[in-house]
Amino acid sequence: MKTLEDIDIEGEKVLARVDLNSTIKYGSVKLTPRIKEHAQTLEELCDKGCGVVALAHQGRPGEEGFTHLSEHAELLNQLLDRRVIFVEDVTGRLAQKAMDELHKEDILLLDNVRMHEDELKDVSPEEHGRSELVQTLSEHCDVYVNDAFSVCHRNHASITGFPQIMESAGGPVLEKDVESISHIEESEKPRHFILGGNKHEDALVVMKKMLEDGVADLVILAGTVGELFLQVNGHDLGAKSYSTENIEAEELLQRYRDRIILPEDLAYEKNDTRKEVDVKELPVDEETLDIGTQTIEEIKKRIEEAKTIVVNGPLGMFEKENFKKGTKEVFGKLKELDRFVLVGGGDTSHAVEDLGFDMEKDFTHVSLAGGAFVKALLGEELVGVEALK
């Protein structure tokens, strides 16, 4: 796969596929780590004397967050000392005119690419390359740069179509993600995986693969997957019980019990106060939302033994003040260690920023990708990366 170091883009008009997809809160687009990181990519392209045509998406058709990118352009204008132009068009006359008139070192953000009918068509990459979307934009740009690793598991026109017909390269965000994730299997042992978050189905798949392939020496569980395994281990979660995935979880726990660390205590809220309960004393009437102090200290001790640590998912509901403790203290310990620490997942990267950590300085690498990060961990081919190859 070519990167920006492998192609001469000085003064060229670059079509950059970035990921500005963000949380929309109270009707406004939130400034997220993802927008900040991709703003740096646009800045880097402008520094090379390029006129940059940025292509991005927001939400999915039919969902509440599916909207135009005008607010995203405003956020980019605030972040960058560049002129950022927005047009509410993707391939029409307005977009074509704006591309033709774009000055070097300026940025043109086209509208939500998922508003174009070609973007989400279920066709091959080769057919995407022949689409009106790809053909039209390629006529007005010289080089295609894909920096949207987080969308590379999707065969969309803006991801797999342009490499079929244009000189193409991976951007710096994509390059760092690919390199960091591919490094895991060659990294120093012991390797410990910390799996949390609220998608226990994804965590189960990752856990199974990493244990069976011998990639993970230890898997430390928190979040909903930790609760699922507590239930499988005989603990009563009360109303918060899990009815699916139990057979697979039971098999994993039986087969790899000495390599799986379960929570020892959990935290819940009562009268606006954080309370903790030993798992032997479960259930409680309230919903459990974080790991407890005993578990935090056990995790700190375990990760000191590791040489490589992979984290996917926050350890509790860090968005609530009473339940930041688990994620904040474990991440704080990871920051102190001189280890290879890879942190990944959309919610996980939000936790890194919200809890005051520095993405570039505190950990080896923080991936902002969600589904693509999981698929890459599992060793699955990502169609967007393969198209660049």
CATH class type of the largest domain: Alpha Beta
CATH homologous superfamily classification of the largest domain: Phosphoglycerate kinase, N-terminal domain
For the record, give the distance between the C-alpha atoms at the N and C termini, rounded to a whole number: 4 Å
Number of strands: 17
Strand content: 15-25%
Strand arrangement in the largest pleated sheet: 5-6-4-1-7-8
Low-confidence stretches: none
CATH architecture of the largest domain: 3-Layer(aba) Sandwich
CATH topology of the largest domain: Rossmann fold
Helix content: 25-40%
Number of helical stretches of at least 4 residues = 15
Cα radius of gyration in angstroms: 22 Å
Based on secondary structure, the structural category is alpha/beta
The largest sheet is: 6 strands, parallel
Shape: elongated
- Overall pLDDT: 95
Number of self-contained structural domains: 2
